[in-house]
Amino acid sequence: MTLQLLQEITAFIWAEGDMLDHGEYDAWQALWAEKGIYIIPIDPSENDFENTLNYAYDNAHMRQLRVQRLIGGESISTSPQPRTIRTISRFRVLSNDGEFVTVRCAQNLREFRKDVLKHYSADVIYELQRSGDSFQIQRKLIRLINSDDTLAGIGYIL
């Protein structure tokens, strides 16, 4: 791993988090590969996401529906829209073959909605593919540290 690669990955993932915190969903959608998958498993040790229950297992169509539900104001879990701030840190490149990079990082997300502040912590694994001088997200796996506990509605995008 080179410092330049780590800087490129960090800048990309920080930009993604900033887009989500500021509701820039079109720009966020453009970060994804056509067949990219967004996963939030319930079982923290699960690896067979296709055959188990997840909070999210979204392809491009489901991500678009999630965004529409979030901004549409018709879902009780997203009305009023939550305000979020995420801090992303502890980046570690797990693999890199020049075209595909797998990186793990920590995310702490604060959500404020209906006068209540909530906190979610997660290990996040990104599978990224080189795309010009940037990346596209092939897979984003969010392992909430309390995923098997009772969660009070996570209607926004982690």
Automatic annotation (TrEMBL):
Keywords: Aromatic hydrocarbons catabolism, Dioxygenase, Oxidoreductase
Family named by the database record: Belongs to the bacterial ring-hydroxylating dioxygenase beta subunit family.
Pathway this chain belongs to: Aromatic compound metabolism
InterPro entries from the UniProt entry: NTF2-like_dom_sf (IPR032710), Rng_hydr_dOase-bsu (IPR000391)
Protein name: Uncharacterized protein
GO molecular function: dioxygenase activity
PANTHER family assigned to the protein according to its UniProt record, in alphabetical order: 3-PHENYLPROPIONATE_CINNAMIC ACID DIOXYGENASE SUBUNIT BETA, BLR3401 PROTEIN
